[in-house]
Amino acid sequence: MSDWTNYFEVNKATWNKKVNIHAKSDFYNLEAFKDGESSLKPYELNALGDVEGKSLLHLQCHFGQDTLSWSRMGAKCVGVDLSETGIELARSLNAELQQDAKFVCCNVLDTSAHISETFDVVFTSYGVIGWLPDLKPWAKMISERLKPGGTFYMVEFHPIVWMFEEVNGRMEMNYPYSQEQVIYEEYKGTYADKTSEMISKEYGWNHSLSSVVNALIEAGLKIESFKEYDETPYDIFPDLVPNASGMYRAKSPLFPFIFEIKARK
């Protein structure tokens, strides 16, 4: 992991800066969340169902909205994130909302060094695995943190989405479907506030679907379901059209926007 240290440090610095911007953004709508609105989307709610009384580990939790949404539903939650600023805000929200979630600041690949307990559910969602250079240690850690019979669930943007780059308001296919080489980006603003003057400096990796699935299988997990959808809960491309359920679709769908995997130990 030493070869990746600089990448992680740069990413952590960027995420530390993002937290305060995101907490004030309409995208995260923190005041509505404090008033009781859930941040969870239909995919994960339908997949995991009733979590009352279940222990749940949320990987790469940012400042904890999803973690706390699961906590409000009765799960016993632990959230993990790389950003100290994110974890600090998550802990503050946990206290303010009188929940009993716990939050741990660490690199997600090091989770087992910081958390020894095992969980009924391990959960991760939307824009997470692209920050990881290798999915094998990630999957190994997930297996370590699951109880026998426990469920791993992820919902994530489809790797085809990451092949595109916005150039002058248009999406161009500029990146390989899967590549081991790191991708560096530097740009003004964030996905939650494109008008921000913040400079985002980010290292990321593109992972194929087969690399995700095979990493989980090699870690000893049994894939129970795999699904792809040509809609997304986020307005991630120009000219997407919202449908009646609040999802966004292309006018002429050509490829999936998200995928979900449910696996069991």
From TrEMBL:
One of its GO terms (molecular function) is 2-polyprenyl-6-hydroxyphenol methylase activity. It holds the Pfam family Methyltransf_11. Residues 58-153 form the Methyltransferase type domain. Its EC number is 2.1.1.222, 2.1.1.64. Keywords: Methyltransferase, Transferase. One of its GO terms (biological process) is methylation. It is an enzyme of class 2 (transferase). InterPro entries: Methyltransf_11, SAM-dependent_MTases_sf. It comes from the Bacteria. PANTHER family: TRANS-ACONITATE 2-METHYLTRANSFERASE (PTHR43861:SF1), TRANS-ACONITATE 2-METHYLTRANSFERASE-RELATED (PTHR43861). This is Class I SAM-dependent methyltransferase. It comes from Winogradskyella rapida.
